[in-house]
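Q: Could you fold this chain for me?
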Amino acid sequence: MSARLAHRGICVSDLARSTAFYDELGFTAGALEHHIGAAVSAAYGASIVQWGARLVTDASGTVLALQEFHRPGPVGSRTRRPNNQFGLTHLAFYVDDIGKTAAALERAGGEAHWHTRAVFPEGDTEMMYCTDPDGTRIELMHSPSAAPRFSHSGICVGDLARARRFYREGLGFDTAELYALHDHSAWLDVINELHNVKLTAQMLRDARAQTLELLHIVSPACSGPLVPPPPNQLGFSHLAFHVDDLEAAVAAVQANGGTASLDFRCRQFGADSVFCTDPHGVRLLLLQSNESARWIQIP
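A: Sure. Below is the predicted structure, expressed as structure tokens.
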């Protein structure tokens, strides 16, 4: 099984505002919007009647799908979620200047959490959190050896071995760097806004070097429901993957601890698609299509 990251889905309350926000991080907006009907609503497992969305893409080909729900409208507090809560945690970027980038994001409607600014001395990396206009965590990082770019998507997991197996065996990602940070609370406490932090971070990459970070926080222990939030809950909502064989991908997800069913197979984003979850309840979208396909109107 070999899957490639297609996009990262973010539920937003104002599509135009969020498009402008991510423009500050180098993302260019596509012109098409997409509205769904009953078939895709059933695939979400919720009574979603209508939503609009826009793809935004950076120079490296990293894609975000900004989704604005109309009926029903979005729910959620726009408050950044704790980093040790199970599920999708953050989007990380290398930037030239953290201070200048954070100030620009504030002008675009986000919030800079200046008190989270910290330095990972062994990695020669400075980092800080901001949030987008709807509370999605944006990690800004600066290292003299790293060019400005999108870095990774973060997932908080309770069982690192199980999660690693799922993304390796189920979706074909390769293991990359492993950071065992169990004696670094001096700066980890600052960036994570938690006390006495001990964690392990496993980086994984697909065939196109798109990166996921599996974040296992040992202290304070990870917690939260192991189910995906409602699709119209504001924030980082799902990961989408291109696959060559949808039925084989569903079988691989099931065999490696995730949940998936072909019962709600439908057509969206110009592709045959199925929603599923990883072992920690993260919502995933599998797409079987020509990767250059455009989004299409769903009646």
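A (continued): The helical segments are 15-23, 38-44, 98-107, 160-170, 185-192, 246-255.
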